[in-house]
Amino acid sequence: MSLLINLTDASADLEAYIDSYVAATASLANRYGTFYPSSAPYDQWIQGTNTSDYAAVLDGDFTAYSGGNLTGTADALTFGYGLTTDASGLTSVTNVELTFDFRDLNVNAGPDSFDYLVYGLIAGDASRVYDYFDDAGTIQVGTEADNTLYGYDATDYFYFEDNWGSDTINDFTDGEDYIVFDTSLWTNYADFADDATISGNTIAWDGNTITLAGFSGTLSSADFQFVADPATIA
């Protein structure tokens, strides 16, 4: 199942944000994180503190943790700063800057790239995060800011809604990756082609652009999808 990534203006450049977060982990209070509850089964793994520059909360239904391997299901990993704990004891990120939605992913196998993603956050190794993207594939949902998005080894989907801004996609792979538009914009390629323009590696519509950096192929209908909800893509 592809990883659904929801950006915010703070993480408009996806890799720049991840690199910044990981670079800061060495000095984070609670760098190694804590589980809630304190014994299995766990609902959360929490990194950082309420006053640290960054914090992250991994939500799921985890039956055990042993030898670097979490088992159970993973729901979402939320990044930002500030932590809020509710009356039930569950913690959330107060100021959300980036979300990885695993969508109830079964993580019983392992240790695998999911476990190494978490390890990468602890060890300050961003390559572990990108290895997971390579394995799982991504669905990247940007904002109205000018986003910088990235392609990886598996299939990647880049999802755009109205007023997406001037966005850049790095490492777009023709025949593998897809540009996806919300159906509130267009419902099929014919409607899109009547409305927008494609010039080389750039798509333009109503003041918005998508530039495929370094792309020298030819975009065709096969490179596009039109869906109402990014969670239904893959």
UniProtKB/TrEMBL annotation:
This is Uncharacterized protein. It comes from Ectorhizobium quercum. The lineage of its organism: Bacteria, Pseudomonadati, Pseudomonadota, Alphaproteobacteria, Hyphomicrobiales.
